[in-house]
Protein 1
Amino acid sequence: MAKLLVTNAILLIITFQTLSGQAKSSCDCESKINSGPFLSGELFIPAVPLDVKTYFNRDWLLSDVYIANGEIVRNKYIKYNRLLDELFWLEPSSNKIIKLDKEGILKFHFLNVQGDTSVYFRKLKVKRDIFTDSSEIYGQEIYHGKLSLFILHTFYIEEREIISMNKGIFQKDIYAEAPIYFLKLMNIKAVGFKNLNRKNMYAFVPDKKEQIKRFFKQIKQSKIETYPDIILLMKFLNSIVEK
Amino acid sequence: MKTVLVTILLFLNTFLSVSAQKNDELLKPERVYLHTDRNIYIAGEHLFYTLYLHGSPGQISNFAYLLLRDRHNHSAANVRLEINNQIAFGSLFLSDTLSSGIYQIVCYTNCMKNEGEEAYFYKEIIIVNRFDEKMNLFTGPGNAAASDTSFAQNTGIIKTTENLIIHLNKLEFDQREKISFSLESNFLPDDSIAHLSVSISEILPGIPVEPSISEYFGNSHKNSDMGVLNRNQCSFVPEINGPVMQGKVLPMTLSDSINTNARNPIKNYTVLVSTVDSIVNMQFTTTDSLGSFSLILNPYYNGKELIVKLKGNVNSTIFTDDKFSIIQQFTPSGLFNVAGLKDYIIRTGRIAQIQKFYREQTAIITEKEFLPSKTIPRVFYKQYSTIFPSDFLELEDFAEISKEIVPLLKVRKIDGKFVSGYQDLQDQTHINIEPTIFLDGVPIDDVNQIINLGSSKIKRIESLPETRFYGEISFSGILAIFSKDLEINNIQFKTPAIRYQALSSQSYTKPEPFKPTDNPNHFPDLRQLLLWEPEIILKKNEKKQIECYASDLQGIYRINIQGISFNGSTVNGSAVFIIQSKSK
């Protein structure tokens, strides 16, 4: 009988302590108040399903989104589609895909892309060709400095396949990547190049031709394509460009 | 077996208690202390203050509230203070119309409300209206309370509780003589700096010295029943990241409209907050199981009138917290029942009249202003189409406007009521749901509230005929109408809605230091406040030199210094000197 009483007492105390502990951690603190900032966008229902290859990240990844009013919306699941150059948010309560207002975003940061915590995209105003007005794009920030480098991940249709599915015939576009590199000097407009080759660098810094020539000779390549070489080039360009 | 079980029981209890203590270690209850330049004022003067906040480092409130009330508990002034480095300073203008009497200053943070009003800081002051010649209120008996005895002692550390050394080279100064002294503290921890406030003002002997910051914080923490505060269980949220608006949504019942506690709460309802603007703006939150809601207000809303409403239509009432409501009644303590007080305040009143005659006014320097932020919580950034009705032929009402100039919007009349809707929304499941209509930046209930607005009353229309999301809220299209004459003010909401005045923080102000060159020699210098410095930074072992000038008023003056260091240790010191006539 005494044993039973003691056991009951222990159980009672443990239950009480557990409950009180839970009560402490489940109340409304300031950190738990959801007062924004909030993401804004429109419901995205594409007419034709998007090719998964065109997404920068196939899975929804946690990210911080820096919105136009200077606030940061933290820890949201987003996907960036390179073909559309649009950012999508997986709205958690309805599980719907929202295309975020590009006008309302300054930049976004994928917190972890396969171990890489430094993947940033920044909104840039660029002139893609001489015939069109300036437009806003999301450029992946590759190098940040006096002279910064951004990549706009674009695609072109490499080939078209006719496929039959569900007793119907469809045309499927096969896309191939065609990145555009944007060099941006401080607050000056970004200048785009299809390649980071010697000729384009001459055009970008015409008065430093000799130094550029020496640089390309040194690295024994006429076109920069790999990430370490891009960083080398950016460090070099930052050393020669004037404020 | 019994012994084993008892041992387990004791072990578990000890372990859980220790871990609970560890969790709470960081959460000291907050306390505030207010240092004022004086404690007797004439209506029409400024009251200068520095507020000190003591609490858990890193988890300390950023806002405090200061209320000045009279003996009838009527508020004479109330302000919100923004705290930086545990202090806030500024001034209150004591209106010319205030009647003579004893007033009470009450200071607290939102977090302190959880401990009850006993935790608040209270201080009594006298405000005298110079047109009140009889001063009958101040004819109390002599007071036997402990008086300011500091004059009897030497300069330097005066009381045992004082840890600030004031090096004052003499105790008697001539009229208009330069007063110079230095102060230092060896009690500050290494690499620590203290923020101090310094006042030098005339005193009336006999009025008890108010507790110093060290005494006050020491006593108030000792007296605190809780010892530590479990902030997870706060019903008043600590305002660390911004000002918090709290409230409750309760169903409206005819039989029981007053007793709010007896009603069933409105759970999981979305509360919308927005203000009248040329941009559609909004913050929202949801009610919890008790019908309560909390919202960290965006700095953009500071000082603006907000419209708080429910998203759904439910027969209920919204209650919001009043930051300045105090239940405890103010009863003057008799602190100022001192012989000679009446004569002193009559003299003070006359001084104020002479100062007015010579147009001597305290010039105020604004050190920091807290302007509303420009970061608007915009509901949308995308511009689908903006329509200016003035570009078209004049249309009589909104039914015509929607038909003629707003693409994709349909307004129909069903059973005598107008219903609006966008065609071809992406999400066909929302086909019969009306778009959310904003008038002058604020969401309204439906199109019937704007149906009478014709082209002549509408400045512009923004239309987004798509299923929109703003955070977790979805809209079956957005229609934003901006009127020429703020028609939102004429709207009668069908869903529960209230207007809420968001507070703005008071600017950091201080009096301009007196310069003898600014005062002509033939003008009397009748300053009773010789110096008020609300924020002086003192390092350990640093000797800080402070200077001011004696006025023409002969009397006893007190240097009163209070302060706090970054790690929360308090410093204070005081000294008393006399100003006497040059001829003496």
Protein 2
Amino acid sequence: MVSKKGKIWWIAVLLVLCLVPLILPRFYVYLLSVILLFGLFAMSNNLPLGFGGIYQLHHAVFYGVGAYGTALVITKSDLSPWLAFLIGPLIAAALGLIMGLICIRLSKLYFGMLQISLGSLVWAFVYRWYSFTGGDDGIHGITVPDIISSYQGAYYFALIITGLSLYVLYRVLKSPYGIALQGIRDNPVRSAMIGVNVRRHQLLALIIAAFFAGTAGTLFVVVDNTVFPDMIFWTLSLEAVIMCLLGGWLTFLGPMLGAAMIVVIRTFVSTYTVYWALVLGIIFMLVIFFLPNGVLGWVEDLYKRRKNVADMKE
Amino acid sequence: MLEVKSLMKSFDGFKAVDNADLDVRKGEIVAVIGPNGAGKTTLFNLITGILKPDSGRVLFKGEDITGLPPHKICRKRISRSFQVVNVFNRLTVFENTQISILSRERHTWNLVTPSSKLAVDETNELLRRVGLYEKRNRVSGALSHGDRKVLEIAMALAGNPEFLILDEPTAGMSPEETTRCIDLIQGLRERYGLTILFCEHDMEIVFRVANRIMVMVRGATIIQGTCQEVRCNAGVQDAYLGGSDVCLM
């Protein structure tokens, strides 16, 4: 599994991430929180997309519905906010199950098309239902528990929850289920022929992915204290897919790296020009052209090649 | 053990399998031969549930398995390998074999246990048996064609089948690889009592390995019988072996 050297690296990274809020100013801490939660969002998208071979093209629905679920429970009910943080993702997972049941009958691109249509329907509901969801205004000033209401508190909460979620996703991918899922990605016919019920395994991947997308949405509520309909809009889903491809959709942490790249580009380039998407587009094209496996995929390939050369020498 | 009765399947009006009959007894090796496009692979796809037949019946150990989905047929302990290599290209040789074993043991719903702790010995044992142990950590997409065909068979065996279907097991193999593969197939029946159904273009292999032969032409069964019967059948020689020379092969 993880080598000793790898473990030391991980502990070092974690330490740095823990110390960050004590050193950096508020703006950068906020930015890091956003990177973490977008990273979790993209990585949950990558479970069906990169490891399951399912065209999960409208993942933002689960992210947005998770966020709205949490926000509505906090603002409209007397339940504890801590409970709301769990209810949001669960609502997202339930929606994942319902939409999955409908879409999974189709395969490949047809799956993605139907998912985009159904997702847009959810968006229209949220956008139009003023009395309940606040329509295009969204919901603002959502109060979260005191301990995580400061920007540092929100950051630590995002760090802990993202870390836990990544651990769970990693374990899932290394479990027999995870390998079966990757087998389905490579070859669904063969998977069925070794006795795997392809559709049901894919459906579970969709539910897990929806749950963690909802978790990421909930983290956004904690970090930003708002929700708005753009969080459900399909352009955000496109961004998530780009994060996966940019970072490396066949690697575990690739989408996290992709999320960091996009958030950084958007934040810093947009101070110079409103056409920040143009810069992103050019970078994206270059990456797809020269590093078809994404940035982290490229690094992994390099590492493997060096290791192979070393093995040959032995 | 396996009985196929007047099976039919057409694609857009083209009758790919048109009245195929087949009967395989326990412990036999049966070969299906026929010209390209005779419907051999379609027949195998119908038996294993990848395609649903238009009419006709497939019986396995007396039980009707016509039109069941592939994963259910697999659980009846029928395994197959494919003509065109059909493995999990991005997974390693080890993972390919391991997941086939884990699937048989119904472990694919396990989300908790690291798979590096499950069925390791059995996987290694199987890989040693087929001669892929040294290459177990290679990504299967990077293997040679011959090795991937052997991996195909290893994955089929991982299902611990009673009945094994091999679709052109030696297609595209070098002569040495072919010999190794034939030894493997014969060993399977002798040592593990497997019943095997295969199709093959190389007549030498067919006559050497098979107990009985079924001949298919344009989707229909012409004859099923021993090697001798098939060699001397006029219809077969006409349609498949090119006519005239009696009992030459």
